[in-house]
Design goal:
This protein has six helices and 16 strands. The protein has helices at 38-46, 87-100, 162-168, 229-235, 267-271, 273-285, and strands at 13-19, 22-27, 52-59, 64-66, 71-81, 108-117, 123-128, 137-139, 144-148, 151-157, 173-179, 182-187, 195-206, 211-215, 219-224, 239-251. Residues 256-286 have low confidence and may be disordered.
Length: 286
């Protein structure tokens, strides 16, 4: 027995990126609109505000983890489990979720077939963790969407005090990926707007949380812009995020100007797509 799929990839749904077991499918236009929302939908597509979905191919040799609630469809002989084998494991997952703004349980899928994730207006970035060195890849909270099962998830602590973290708006912990394999990340800005800095025993200071990813080999801290606290306040800069050592940093200089687009559309929203398309685009342009 086999499943035949027609019209998944067409002139309006195109593959814009592919890496490892992941493909990013982009809807060029939202065609299921009403007369009242057509104008917004048109200008949204012209300004690259488009729905994107991740397709994951399973061939029986690998597994994949996703953010909880991200799955839209499973095609073929695909099985899902929570990956939590004990109460201790569940408690550990809860602790990680509390400090990294991620879901406590990340479903793990295996088998032969396809997984289609829910559509999102965010941009999808596919990265091979091995390219970030032995320290792995550290991401800002809320960016994780999916990863190959060979990728190890851990929580890293930032070298700053609780008081500094509260003042700076940065958390004390971040999610880190190590090992080898591809991860799918959700970004408020496209890859083309990210600037990559490569440090060789050097220092990068960023005013605000514009760094979205960085090498785990770097030492991250929040410090005063000048040597004195009064001088920092007088300069108008206050605290800055500091990255020291050798590694890479991705900086989004326009991160603070991006509207918060809905992360996903649920199945119930899909059933009334005409109404939801207008409201989702309205949240972006209204």
């Amino acid at each position: 027995m086999a499943i035949q799929v027609k019209n998944w990839i067409n002139d309006n749904r195109k593959v814009i990126a592919q890496r490892g077991m992941f493909r990013v499918i982009e809807h060029q236009k939202d065609l299921s609109v009403s007369s009242g929302s057509a104008q917004r939908a048109y200008f949204a597509s012209e300004m690259n505000v488009k729905l994107r979905q991740v397709e994951i191919a399973l061939d029986g040799s690998k597994t994949v983890k996703t953010q909880a609630g991200a799955m839209q469809m499973m095609v073929g002989n695909v099985e899902m489990n929570t990956g939590v084998k004990s109460a201790k494991g569940f408690f550990g997952a809860m602790v990680k979720a509390a400090v990294t703004n991620e879901t406590a349980v990340k479903p793990e899928y295996c088998g032969n077939g396809q997984i289609i994730l829910e559509p999102t207006y965010k941009h999808i970035i596919l990265q091979d963790v091995a390219e970030w060195g032995n320290g792995g890849l550290v991401i800002e909270d809320g960016m994780f969407l999916a990863s190959e099962g060979s990728v190890t998830h851990s929580v890293v602590e930032n070298t700053q005090s609780l008081g500094t973290a509260l003042v700076s708006g940065e958390g004390l912990y971040n999610l880190c990926f190590t090992g080898s394999g591809v991860v799918a990340l959700e970004s408020h800005v496209p890859f083309e707007e990210l600037i990559e800095y490569t440090l060789e025993n050097d220092v990068l200071k960023v005013d605000g949380n514009m760094a979205v990813c960085w090498s785990g080999s770097l030492n991250f801290s929040v410090e005063k812009a000048t040597k004195s606290f009064i001088g920092s306040m007088a300069s108008g800069e206050g605290l800055v995020n500091v990255y020291r050592g050798s590694g890479k940093v991705w900086v989004s200089p326009v991160a603070g100007t991006t509207d918060s687009a809905p992360k996903t559309m649920s199945s119930s929203q899909n059933s009334t797509k005409e109404a939801s398309s207008g409201s989702l685009l309205g949240s972006l342009f209204g």
